[in-house]
Design brief:
The complex is a heterotrimer of chains A (about 525), B (about 425) and C (about 170). With about 525 residues, chain A is of the alpha+beta class. Chain A has 3 domains: about 80 residues, Ubiquitin-like (UB roll); about 110 residues, Alpha-Beta Plaits, CATH 3.30.70.20; about 230 residues, Rossmann fold. Chain A contains 16 helices and 23 strands. In chain C, a hairpin with a 2-residue loop joins strand 3 and strand 4. The chains are: A alpha+beta (about 525), B alpha/beta (about 425), C alpha+beta (about 170).
Chain lengths: ~525, ~425, ~170
């Protein structure tokens, strides 16, 4: 439990955590101290001067809140005329050379200068002389576009490349009001987290080439989600919108703070996996490569299941706990061995010491919890003598080479229940579309054993069938997510006392001890 | 009126060489110094009342006593030889005419603060001076006054000269440290103060060249001899620089406390023939200007300057006569500060540029009264809201011209096209 | 100040000559961190070549073991570093306060006329470059001019013309 101290803000006594700077300490009790250059992950720089607060009887009487530790009895002044004037003056100075690009700037609607102008300034411009002009639309690499005129020189981006990625591509050159952010010629941004500077930038000086001009931020619904790009399970915002006469699509992923998982950041590759949710989707059921109706496809699968001699069921390491449980139950009902074989979902050696993992699937940890075998030997044993393979979103062509795939399909009929087009779907005799994770809800466990929950984000005009419902239509007993959770709590020891409906925002750590007691 | 305390060896030919300097007393204090305890030396310097001669006037001995005791990190001395405040031209004489007094002072200081590494930060423009200084340092090493066994003791001391490259802001102590560490001269927030966390995160003392060069005299003759010059609260002597529109501009060593106008008349010859005094900048461009009336009662010490709402600063006196256009002078000054702003924090970076454009607009004849008012208000809006006091150096001086010579600004506005059009 | 961020690439790699190499190694022992070598290294390049190219900055960064952006920042922040070639005679005229009061403008105007260049420019034949700089710390002998680092004090138009004659 953190130590608390009592101090005064605008005359009111509040209790805050000691040792924190005033922005964080007072922010935690709901009082905002405006700031531009401070960021909890990057530390305090003290250059914007927006967080200047008064300290009654203090020496000095005016301090930057980002550099001042909360102390017992401190009397912080935020709303005096003097401080309000300082906030207006700092805003005025930020704006005199700032181009009024708002109508064409991506940041509009989520811009600190706009927000602070409305809240702390609101005055007419007194600038009657020429502003400073700099370069705009500079390509910094990695899809980052920089506008030097919009830049307020908070140095967050520079500190990010020096403190977090330790690649140091960015710097602030020149001095006085000629200062500007730039890359060294020939050494552009070249790290796997570069696009985080777009989120860090409080204004529209850093924009993403991928997102530029695509959507206004106020039209975006910012749903909470979890990235499925690898087993880290970085928390994200799924920013999506359904334009008139169009469908609900995702415009971008942004990292969402989770101090126990990814902090404030995510990798660029994971950030771009939003495209997999939009593009290349399997929307229409197929039989033998030809489009057909949903019911016809379901019927065809049920027929195949009842006629088969030996069925094998494959499940994806991206499936949620609830989905895995429903599939596991179905497999057992049709006497089919269940395999999670997905070696092809690894990119060995690709992981780093920050967020990126070798395992590019989101929920492989659950295989251990649920006792699902994902070994190659297990797979080979399972398909021996089988004539029907039912795969739930597991693209086996990623794990088997062409020869192995051809050999497999020579004796086994492949049916795919999936959300996207892929090689397995192309080679399947029946393909049944289901919802992707951004359109569904569930719980997953990341590589560190942290259980996290995600809710439905995107709602398509024609929502696809959820995977659990599809399993049910094919004969599975589990009807929905709720039933799956009840089943999980009964069958997985470590989940016995976990209410899967009420997982806290930071997730729950499933400790090693508990995993050891998993039912075999 | 002139004295020769710091400048005792200035006029001796080749006093920059160790042979001549030693003949005239250089390094004579060291035997006594190494027989004392470091703490004793600090008390001695405190007792002398020596105040920092870089411009801030902070008591030197007191600054040394802020070093934490019992630290396991090395202590550093940084000698501030950046001398870039306009109207200041004193330290260069020490560097060229008597560098060994500086080196001896460095040894005394480092022994007192238990430092074994001193960096002399010299402004890049001092090309000839740095050669003389480095030659003197090399001589000192050769003679055993620097290196592993200073003056035959087991005290080790290394002195390294670090050249700046054209930035006034590096005269600010934390910007100076940043520059030694290889970065842009962008000042650091204080706290933490350099005495606790300075160069390379270690306890560091930063002193001006003249302050350090004052130490041999104090150690040789004792604090009372130093206090015999000057006033009670501003003891000692200073290398005053008198420049501008006077008959005999130059560097003059004087005790503190002499009347300003008397010094300008008697030492520097007063204003040129046929001209009248219009104003005096007392201590460098950053100090508020004095009108002739105000200057009547000013004496050259920290207290009198403060009482007249200006500053002793670096003792760089600039004499202004009736030929000076105060508005254009302000443009020259704001232009300087704008050029030298490090660009780190918002008010200085954006604000000084704005102020410059406004004063240029006024001079071009396009200004209105509102522009003069805005210029005045900006002085208040920017001052003390920044990381360092470079912006205050600009705003405090500019404000003094706006207050005391406002009529000159208004004359530009009355004659301006917009006012003409409005009439 | 102007925008100093447009660096010039020579198209050839840069390396220290033997003298600068030895000096670099000597200096490396006098600082506890490698980054402290940035400013001294930039001076070494300028001593060797007269100016600092993009390749030279990259060389310094790699030799020191720091980011090129850090060297880039220092080279553009400190105005004495030449980021483009200067004339054989680089003339700096002090423009501040006392020099301003005592006639720096006449000197600048005279130089503009005699050399045919404006402050910031290099003459076509590469003989001269002209710059207005801030206070050089020689206010008692104003106006002051520096040519290739040498100080010329108490200048006026006549002395200036005499000086220019000796530079030819």
């Amino acid at each position: 439990m953190a130590e608390k101290v009592k101090l005064f803000v605008n005359g009111q006594e509040v209790e805050v955590e000691s040792g924190k700077n005033l922005i964080d300490a007072i922010g935690a009790v709901g009082i905002e101290i405006p700031h531009l250059c401070y960021h909890p992950a990057l530390g305090a720089d003290g250059n914007c001067r927006m967080c200047l607060v008064g300290i009654e009887d203090g020496r000095p009487p005016l301090v930057p809140a980002c550099k001042t530790r909360a102390a017992e009895g401190m009397k912080v002044q935020l709303d005096t005329d003097k401080i309000k004037k300082i906030q207006r003056d700092i805003m005025e100075l930020e704006l005199i050379n700032h181009p009024i690009d708002c109508p064409i700037c991506d940041q509009a609607g989520e811009c600190k200068l706009q927000d602070y102008y409305m809240k702390y300034d609101g005055q007419q411009s007194r600038m009657t002389v020429k502003p400073v002009l700099k370069a705009k639309k500079l390509d910094f690499g990695c899809g980052v576009v920089h506008d030097q005129e919009r830049c307020i020189l908070c140095a967050r981006c520079v500190r990010f490349t020096r403190l977090i990625t330790k690649t140091g591509e960015l710097g602030i050159v020149n001095r006085t009001d000629y200062a500007r952010v730039n890359i060294f010629p020939g050494r552009p941004l070249a790290n796997r987290y570069a696009l985080n500077v777009v989120d860090l930038c409080p204004v529209g000086a850093m924009t993403s080439k991928d997102f530029r001009f695509k959507q206004r931020s106020w039209f975006l619904t910012k749903s909470k989600g979890i990235c499925h790009g690898c087993s880290k399970g970085c928390n994200i915002f799924i920013d999506h919108n359904r334009e008139k006469y169009k469908d609900d699509i995702i415009y971008r992923f942004r990292p969402r703070l989770n101090e126990k998982v990814n902090g404030y950041f995510m990798c660029d590759e994971g950030r771009m996996t939003y495209k997999l949710e939009n593009d290349n989707r399997l929307s229409a059921p197929q039989i033998d490569g030809k489009e057909t109706g949903f019911n016809e496809a379901v019927e065809a699968i049920r027929r195949a299941v009842s006629q088969a001699n030996k069925i094998v069921v494959a499940v994806s390491p991206n499936a949620s706990l609830e989905q895995m449980h429903a599939v596991q139950q179905f497999a057992s009902a049709v006497n089919a061995p269940l395999t999670g074989y997905s070696d092809g979902y690894f990119r060995k050696g690709d992981g780093d010491d920050f967020l990126i993992q070798d395992d590019k699937s989101a929920n492989r940890y659950a295989f251990t919890l649920l006792g699902i075998d994902d070994s190659k030997a297990g797979f080979e044993a399972a398909v021996k003598g089988a004539d029907l393979l039912l795969s739930f979103q597991n693209d086996l062509s990623r794990s088997l080479n062409e020869t192995e795939m051809t050999q497999l399909l020579a004796t086994v009929k492949l049916i795919m229940i999936d959300s996207s087009h892929n090689t397995s779907v192309a080679k399947a005799v029946v393909a049944l579309p289901v919802a992707s994770y951004s359109e569904d809800s569930g719980s997953i466990v990341n590589c560190d054993g942290r259980l996290q929950r995600y809710e439905v984000a995107v709602v398509k005009n024609q929502p696809a069938c959820t995977l659990i419902h599809a399993v049910h239509l094919l004969g599975g007993e589990v009807k929905n997510g709720q039933e799956a959770r009840i089943g999980l709590q009964a069958s997985v020891a470590v989940l016995k006392d976990v209410d899967l409906e009420q997982i806290p925002a930071e997730g729950i750590a499933l400790t090693e001890n508990e995993v050891a007691h998993v039912a075999a | 009126m002139q004295v020769q305390v710091l400048s005792a060896r200035f006029d001796i030919p080749d006093a920059n060489t160790i042979e001549v300097a030693k003949k005239h007393g250089a390094y004579a204090t060291l035997e006594k110094v190494f027989a004392m305890q470091p703490e004793e030396i600090i008390e001695l310097v405190k007792a002398s009342g020596l105040r920092g001669r870089g411009g801030a006037g902070f008591p030197t001995g007191l600054k040394w006593s802020f070093l934490p005791k019992n630290i396991d990190k090395p202590v550093y001395l940084a000698v501030n030889s950046d001398e870039s405040e306009p109207a200041t031209f004193k330290d260069r004489y020490i560097l060229v005419r008597d560098p060994h007094s500086l080196i001896e002072g460095i040894i005394i200081c480092c022994y007192a603060i238990k430092s074994h590494a001193a960096y002399i930060y010299i402004r890049g423009e001092y090309t000839t001076q740095v050669k003389v200084l480095q030659a003197a340092i090399d001589e000192a090493y050769a003679a055993g006054y620097l290196g592993d066994n200073v003056a035959g003791t087991d005290f080790k001391l290394d002195v390294t000269v670090h050249r700046g490259a054209g930035a006034y802001v590096c005269g600010e102590e934390t910007a100076l440290l940043e520059s030694i560490e290889g970065r842009k001269g962008q000042p650091r927030s204080k706290p933490p103060f350099p005495a606790v966390e300075g160069l390379y995160g270690c306890p560091t003392i930063i002193n001006n060249v003249q302050s350090i060069a004052s130490l041999p005299f104090i150690l040789t003759n004792g604090p009372d001899a130093y206090k015999a010059f000057g006033t009670e609260k501003s003891p000692g002597t200073h290398l005053f620089g008198i420049s501008g529109l006077v008959k005999r501009p130059g560097m003059y060593e004087l005790p503190l406390g002499l009347p300003l106008l008397e010094v300008i008349e008697k030492v520097a010859g007063g204003v040129r023939d046929g001209r009248s005094l219009k104003g005096v900048i007392p201590g460098g461009s950053s100090t508020p200007v004095l009108t002739p009336e105000e200057a009547q009662t000013v004496t050259l010490d920290y207290e009198s300057m403060a009482a007249h709402k200006t500053m002793f600063g670096s003792g760089g006196i600039v004499v202004l006569d009736d030929t000076v256009d105060m508005v254009k002078l302000v443009e020259n000054l704001i232009s300087f500060y704008h050029h030298e702003s490090c660009g780190q924090c918002t008010p200085c970076r954006e604000g000084l540029g704005w102020m410059l454009k406004i004063v240029k607009k006024i001079i071009r004849g396009e200004g209105a009264t509102a522009d003069i008012d805005l210029l005045t208000e900006l002085c208040d809006n920017i001052e003390m809201k920044t990381v360092c006091v470079l912006s205050a150096a600009c705003t405090m001086s500019t404000r003094s011209y706006l207050n005391k010579f406002r009529h000159e600004f208004e004359a530009y506005v009355t004659n301006s096209a917009s006012s003409q059009a409005a009439m | 100040m102007s925008d100093r961020s447009q660096l010039i690439e020579t198209g050839k790699p840069f390396t220290f000559d033997a003298q600068r190499d030895a000096e670099f190694e000597r200096l490396a022992k006098r600082y506890p961190t490698r980054e402290s070598l940035i400013l001294p290294s930039l001076w070494l390049v300028q001593e060797q070549e007269g100016w600092i190219s993009a390749e030279a900055m990259a060389y310094i960064a790699d030799r020191i073991g720091t980011y090129a952006s850090m060297v880039y920042e220092a080279a553009t922040f400190y105005t004495m570093y030449n980021i483009q070639p200067k004339g054989k005679n680089h003339i700096c005229v002090c423009r501040t306060l006392s020099c301003y009061l005592l006639g720096k403008q006449e000197i600048v105007d005279c130089l503009r006329q005699e050399l045919g260049i404006k402050p910031g420019e290099v003459s076509a034949d590469g003989q001269y470059s002209l710059e207005e700089v801030e206070c050089l710390g020689h206010c008692g002998t104003a106006p002051v001019v520096q040519v290739n680092g040498e100080f010329y004090e108490n200048m006026n138009v006549n002395k200036l013309k005499e000086l220019l004659a000796t530079l030819k």
